[in-house]
Amino acid sequence: MPDTQIDIDQLTGALRRETVKKNVAAIHISGKLSLLQRKLSNVLLLNAYDALTTAQTHSIDARTLAAIVGYNSNDFDTLRASLRALAETVAEWDMLDEQGRQEWGVSSLLSFAKLKNGVCEYAYSPALAQKLHDPKIYALINVHIQRNFSSGHGLALYENCYRFVRTGSTGWWSLETFRKLMGVQGSSYYESFKHLNAKIIKPAVGEVNKSSDIVITPEFRKKGRAVTDIRFLIRENPQMAMFQIDDSDGARGMDVYKALRGQGVSDRLARQWIAEHGEEYVLQKLDYMIGQGEVKSSVGYLSAALRDDYQPKTEPKAKEPSPEAVEAVRLKQAVRDQEDAAYHQRKAERAERARKLEVVADLVSRRNPTQRNADKQLFIASLDGDLERENFRTHGWHSGLNASAIIAFWSELEPAAFDE
């Protein structure tokens, strides 16, 4: 899978479509969804995406679904309540089609959902399925990032802002639209900007900046003394790269990791098992599986053995992994593949940035002292924030916080300098 992560929380924000120039197609969700309900909708969309426009219904093992989302696998009451909330939630869109004609529509988020014989079956309305199948929605889905969030408001704000990371700003939203995006429309308490700012905006902004790969800054527009509109300035989080240093726990150096890889277990799944269960427990289940002889699927068998704590028995063969266990592994592996793609993309971007900064260092070395001083003063004057200016004064042209601005600055001075 691509580095996309399919968070249907994307329904809560504006979507850009390449076929409509300068148009933001807004798909909004009404109603109040909890954090787990948002994550549930994401997993349902991930499971259905490939057949979203070709199949009328979709299905997934109910215990697998609950486990992936974070519910107790036996807590079907909560699962039923969450599915009911999704079916009662309204999605509304207002956009231009490929011919430039205005299109407005409304649909329930799920047209139906049912639990029967341990299977969750569900469907989307045909019109909404077409909107959700837009590749740009799929490209925004990031299961890895959503795991970091502990509040639905923070996750909703992240998804609405992330779509605009390349433009650097969400553009102005009326407070009415913003309340709708956050799921607090209709609340008299949040009609007060003071309450909205204290209970929704500030905590959500703090969580986005702490837990995600972007940093956002709110700005407000007033009419008289009253705040009427809000927008968010967006930039990449320079600290996130530090948190994403690969294999910080050194798992790849362990013998159990190498043994798992030899059984066909993916890099990320192997490291996750070691982190979750510990080296000794994983090695015990690996030895147990090897003692059973040939198995149909090493990954599926090990997943079941770790989950259900398989123990040696007198029977010559242990039971085969259940279809539910195999399905859980399939979906988890899909998430791992997405994260692998994201990692390799970030790695390539970091390598390209390092190459360009080396070019900058070479360009600077060729300048005389007077030119160097003038270059520094000119670049500092182009920076907007005190943090960026202070970081540059400390680290000079090696400032990681200002890497993008440094490259852009020298691209203007030496247009062909960064050509391969």
TrEMBL record:
Pfam families: Rep3_C, Rep3_N. It comes from the Bacteria. Residues 19-161 form the Initiator Rep protein WH1 domain. GO terms for molecular function: DNA-directed DNA polymerase activity. SUPFAM superfamilies: Winged helix' DNA-binding domain (SSF46785). GO terms for biological process: DNA replication initiation. Belongs to the initiator RepB protein family. This is RepB family plasmid replication initiator protein. The lineage of its organism: Bacteria, Pseudomonadati, Pseudomonadota, Alphaproteobacteria, Rhodobacterales.
